[in-house]
Specification:
Length: 344
């Protein structure tokens, strides 16, 4: 995984206040504008797929001499989900009790459980955009309508091939590769161990005092009243005491970054179809309010522990700002009260 920094992604102001009513909105179809992004978490080649000679999101005009003018981008659909009216949640209260680390639970264990839970919820949402449209016979998120993985016109996400070159892939292909990568991480016991780590009781000392059956005291290492605990205990990292590898925290951040990209694509390309039109009577709920509930929970965890940067959140920042203002994202989480600073 190449984690080197790339040039900042330019964030264009998105129209959140004009346009037709949601019922008349045309579905967005991705972006052709490339913007540099951070590297993807895997380096295998994406599957090949046919490309349309005339992408649905481009329009061309023919001159009188039968030559075509440069294709022009159609106006981007208004972003209704950035409006306060559509920032409502399907649940009451906030998600701080579900985000905050419980007492007596190791930070590594808590982050691991958050990765598993957030991914479980997101996979259910992804099933919605994989539903087949009976009129076209294709999934709602398909290679024709979503020819590149994007979150609006301003943000295009690329994948790294085997040569570590960033390449554009369709949204369904990108989503499939992210799914395989995250599932591979979460089920890898070297990255997310499942066995309990054996440790000695607190009253067993390195000097040999109270050590059962000890015949020779075990010499303690050098100590100094001025030395930091991390130095006395050796090199530290998040999750070390519970058996997680040194790369664990970076893996968690990469998992959350990729999950955010999937959420951003869902909002920018599939908020209207299908989520705006999904309704449930028992209990009464709307697809877009349930989507908001899942995403605000995800963002609360991300901001509380510092798992996403401001740059990562740019495609959805107007909605995040609304939730911070109305308290859906608690002030503690918005301020990063539990931001993790890796040990040096």
């Amino acid at each position: 995984m190449d984690s080197s920094e790339q040039p900042a992604v330019q964030f264009l102001q998105l129209d959140a206040g004009t346009g037709p009513a949601p019922g008349n909105q045309q579905k967005g179809s991705g972006s052709t504008t490339s913007s540099p992004t951070t590297a993807s978490p895997a380096t295998f080649n994406p599957p090949t797929y046919p490309t349309s000679s005339t992408p649905t999101h481009l329009s061309s005009t023919m001159n009188t001499d039968n030559t075509f003018m440069e294709p022009q981008l159609e106006p981007e659909a208004p972003k209704f989900f950035f409006r306060e009216k559509f920032a409502k949640l399907g649940v009451k209260g906030n998600f701080m009790p579900l985000a905050a680390q419980p007492k007596n639970v190791d930070l590594g264990d808590w982050l691991a459980s958050q990765c598993h839970e957030q991914w479980r919820v997101l996979e259910k949402l992804l099933e919605c955009i994989k539903e087949v449209d009976t009129t076209t016979g294709e999934p709602l998120c398909n290679r024709r309508d979503c020819p590149v993985m994007s979150a609006g016109r301003a943000h295009t996400y690329t994948w790294l091939n085997r040569n570590k070159d960033p390449i554009k892939v369709s949204a369904p292909d990108y989503i499939g590769m992210v799914q395989r990568w995250i599932c591979g991480k979460l089920t890898n016991t070297d990255v997310f161990p499942t066995d309990a780590v054996a440790s000695a009781p607190a009253d067993y000392f390195a000097s040999g005092l109270n050590t059962p059956t000890a015949t020779t005291p075990i010499p303690a290492g050098p100590t100094a009243s001025t030395a930091p605990l991390s130095t006395l205990a050796g090199h530290e990292w998040v999750g070390k005491s519970t058996g997680f590898p040194e790369s664990f925290f970076n893996d968690c951040k990469t998992i959350f970054r990729q999950m955010f990209r999937l959420y951003a694509h869902i909002y920018h390309s599939h908020w209207l179809d299908p989520f705006y039109h999904i309704q449930s009577q028992n209990p009464p709920s709307s697809g877009w309010t349930d989507l908001n509930s899942c995403f605000v929970h995800f963002v609360t965890v991300s901001k509380l522990f510092g798992l996403l940067s401001d740059r990562d959140m740019e495609p959805m920042q107007p909605l995040v700002d609304l939730w911070i203002t109305n308290g859906s994202i608690p002030a503690e989480a918005a301020a990063g009260a539990c931001v993790i600073v890796p040990h040096q």
